[in-house]
Amino acid sequence: MGPRLHAPLRLLSEAPSGHLTLTVNVRHADPGRLIACTSVIEQIGIVTVCVRDQDRALDFYVGKLGFEKRADAGGDGYRWLTVAPPGSHTQIYLAKAGPAELHLEEAIGGQTGIMLQARDVDTTYRELAARGVNFPQPPTRLGYGVQAQFEDEDGNVFFLQELRA
């Protein structure tokens, strides 16, 4: 029989498909010898943005930003509502926040940390501004490219970055 191995498992996430992401740290019987085996994360699936009114948010993301509605399901006071730019793998879950909700009202508004990409930020800025989207930061040239910031109707702020050729 070979050397004894100790392998504590840690669940990182469960995907909607039911696949589990695990990290396994295997400690060899010899002290100090650690073998790490980690599954590969392939993409970001869904990010959450908290909103006050899901219907109003849906109108903004679909009507003003041109996103697609990807999912709209629920019941008993809960609604799973996701949107995404056409062709994007990553979706945004528009989570209702507020008193007696799963997400706290304090999570509404402010910097989301989400960076959306466009081929031409200047053109996208002009088109979205004409549709009534508020830009606290117009397109700015930085060392790594062109960037702007816009906000949704709940004050959630997003970066808009230019795709590099």
Give the CATH level 1 class of the largest domain: Alpha Beta
Helix content: 10-25%
Count of distinct strands:
12
| Computed CA radius of gyration, to the nearest angstrom | 21 Å
- Mean of residue pLDDT? 85
Distance N terminus to C terminus? 56 Å
How large is the count of helical segments? 2
Query: In the CATH scheme, what's the topology name of the largest domain?
Result: 2,3-Dihydroxybiphenyl 1,2-Dioxygenase, domain 1
- The arrangement of helices and strands along the chain is EEEEEHEEEEHEEE
CATH hierarchy: architecture of the largest domain:
Roll
Query: Could you tell me the strand content as a percent range?
Result: over 45%
Assign the structural class, choosing from mainly alpha, mainly beta, alpha/beta, alpha+beta, or little secondary structure.
Answer: mainly beta
Main beta sheet strand tally, sense and closure:
4 strands, antiparallel
CATH superfamily of the largest domain: 2,3-Dihydroxybiphenyl 1,2-Dioxygenase, domain 1
Number of domains: 3
Low-confidence segments, given as residue ranges, are 1-15, 17-26
What is the subunit organization of this protein?
single chain
Short description:
This protein has 165 residues and is mostly beta strands.
Structure explained in plain terms:
The protein is built from 2 helices and 12 strands. The protein is mainly beta and 165 residues long. The strands form 3 sheets. Strands 1, 2, 3 and 4 form a 4-stranded antiparallel sheet that branches. Strands 5-8-7-6 form a 4-stranded mixed sheet, covered by helices on one side. A 4-stranded mixed sheet has the order 9-12-11-10. A hairpin with a 5-residue loop joins β3 (20-28) and β4. The N and C termini lie far apart (56 Å). The protein folds into 3 domains: 5-38, no CATH class; 43-107, 2,3-Dihydroxybiphenyl 1,2-Dioxygenase, domain 1; 109-165, Roll (2,3-Dihydroxybiphenyl 1,2-Dioxygenase, domain 1). Residues 1-15 and 17-26 have low confidence and may be disordered. It has helices spanning 54-64, 121-130, and strands spanning 5-6, 9-14, 20-28, 34-38, 46-51, 68-75, 78-84, 91-96, 110-118, 134-142, 145-151, 156-162. The longest helix has 11 residues, at 54-64.
